[in-house]
């Protein structure tokens, strides 16, 4: 395939999603997407091109830098696409702190500023930086851009962003930032396109995947969100604990004398659905198939906390007109959606069982005072659009 191309990298703590887009006139169109999961050995490059699916074992292991992994990946992609036409690369970067209020071109200065924020996101930021540096070494002529997960929440009022801690800590950056912003930016735009009346009102979007958060919006702008300083905050997730009494951490460190590394691993990787279920699974689908009462309790706690957070966020925006479910669980799990809605029936939310089971776009009943929608998210589209915009401006 010929013509200018744009590539996106959506780096998680243990995987990277890759998107390949054609640049045509004033827009970009995705032509393929891929995944590399660093938790599995040997590394496998999983590519989806239309209806075709390819799985390729990689020789590189990615243990230190990603130069070998990305060189091998680009070599393989080049068998299908003319990567001499690759003009731009866009990256998802989890943390922009107060440094960035929009996407930026990556140069030595912006890269150093992104690196300095790694202390705020030690599990995610380094992975994005490894990808950026690998691509700079492999293809130094390419323009690269960074899109930040925190930027969408920069519209949160300062009072919302503040913890009840000494002011000097807030001034040093210990504050609520919020995440999943690229997903929420896409949802806000898509809701405005499909349901403009709902988009103009009081909306809470629930990004429910292995990482989960919620965002309260007024007229498409973030006003409050469940995640705060870190991606541990808010509702329980697949393996993360969600909001936690900080006294628990002090107890584990001071009374039980657990190493910090052990506590960190527990909070990020052994808690949430996995922890409450007693290790049965971090996957909602497997927990729903289990007869073990611990599996049911994990799911019940998950939906209870989501509904409770929707109640809190509704206060922040003065009520609730619509709920949007998105991401892997939000888009595909009817049981989770139904359970959340049942907790919120007092708010006037009624979900149609038939529409919910069919994963329809609108799943609320005609008599429901609160609308409920399912809108698939597309973070890669936002990364591509932002990178394309910067590429176009740069001429």
Automatic annotation (TrEMBL):
Residues at the site labelled Transition state stabilizer: 180, 240
Cofactor note: Mg(2+). Can also accept Mn(2+).
Matches recorded under SUPFAM superfamilies: Actin-like ATPase domain
PANTHER family assigned to the protein according to its UniProt record, in alphabetical order: ACETATE KINASE
Alphabetized InterPro entries for the sequence: Ac/propionate_kinase (IPR004372), Aliphatic_acid_kin_short-chain (IPR000890), Aliphatic_acid_kinase_CS (IPR023865), ATPase_NBD (IPR043129)
Name of the molecule in the record: Acetate kinase
Catalysed reaction, written as an equation: acetate + ATP = acetyl phosphate + ADP
Gene: ackA
Xref: Gene3D superfamilies: 3.30.420.40
Key words, A-Z: ATP-binding, Cytoplasm, Kinase, Magnesium, Metal-binding, Nucleotide-binding, Transferase
Chain's role: Catalyzes the formation of acetyl phosphate from acetate and ATP. Can also catalyze the reverse reaction.
Subunit structure and binding partners: Homodimer.
Pathway the protein takes part in: Metabolic intermediate biosynthesis; acetyl-CoA biosynthesis; acetyl-CoA from acetate: step 1/2
Positions of Mg(2+) binding: 10, 379
Subcellular location: Cytoplasm
A Gene Ontology biological process term: acetyl-CoA biosynthetic process
Names of required cofactors: Mg(2+); Mn(2+)
GO cellular component entries: cytosol
Keyword Electron transport: no
GO molecular function: acetate kinase activity; ATP binding; magnesium ion binding
Residues the record lists as binding ATP: 17, 207-211, 283-285, 328-332
Annotated substrate binding sites: 92
């Amino acid at each position: 395939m010929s013509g200018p191309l744009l590539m996106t990298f959506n780096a998680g703590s243990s995987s990277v999603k890759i998107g390949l887009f054609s640049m045509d006139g004033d827009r970009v169109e995705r032509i393929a997407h891929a995944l590399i999961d660093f938790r599995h050995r040997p590394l496998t490059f999983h590519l989806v091109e239309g209806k075709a699916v390819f799985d390729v074992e990689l020789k590189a292991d990615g243990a230190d830098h990603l130069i070998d992994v990305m060189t091998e990946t680009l070599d393989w992609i080049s068998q299908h696409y003319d990567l001499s036409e690759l003009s731009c690369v866009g990256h998802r970067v989890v943390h922009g702190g107060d440094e960035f209020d929009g996407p930026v071109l990556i140069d030595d200065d912006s890269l150093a500023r992104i690196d300095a924020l790694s202390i705020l996101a030690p599990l995610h930021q380094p992975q994005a930086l490894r990808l950026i540096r690998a691509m700079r070494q492999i293809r130094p002529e390419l323009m690269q851009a960074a899109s930040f997960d925190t930027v969408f929440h920069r519209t949160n009022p300062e009072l919302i962003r503040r913890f009840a801690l000494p002011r000097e800590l807030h001034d040093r950056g210990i504050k609520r930032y919020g995440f999943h912003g690229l997903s929420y930016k896409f949802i806000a735009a898509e809701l405005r396109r499909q349901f403009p009346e709902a988009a103009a009102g009081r909306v809470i979007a629930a990004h429910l995947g292995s990482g989960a958060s919620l965002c309260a919006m007024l007229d498409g702008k973030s006003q409050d969100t469940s995640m705060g300083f870190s991606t541990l905050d808010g509702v329980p997730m697949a393996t993360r604990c969600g909001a936690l009494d900080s006294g628990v951490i002090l107890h584990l460190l001071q009374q039980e004398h657990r190493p910090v590394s052990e506590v960190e691993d527990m909070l990020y990787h052994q808690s949430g659905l996995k922890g409450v279920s007693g290790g049965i699974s971090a996957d909602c689908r497997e927990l729903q198939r289990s007869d073990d009462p611990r599996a049911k309790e994990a799911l019940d706690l998950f939906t209870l906390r989501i509904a409770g957070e929707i109640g809190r966020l509704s206060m922040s925006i003065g009520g609730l007109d619509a709920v949007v479910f998105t991401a892997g669980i939000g888009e595909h799990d009817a049981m989770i959606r139904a359970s959340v809605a049942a907790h919120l029936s007092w708010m006037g939310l009624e979900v149609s069982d038939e529409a919910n089971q069919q994963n329809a776009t609108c799943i609320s009943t005609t008599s429901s005072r609160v609308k409920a929608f399912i809108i698939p998210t597309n973070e890669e589209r936002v990364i591509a659009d932002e990178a394309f915009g910067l590429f176009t401006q740069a001429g």
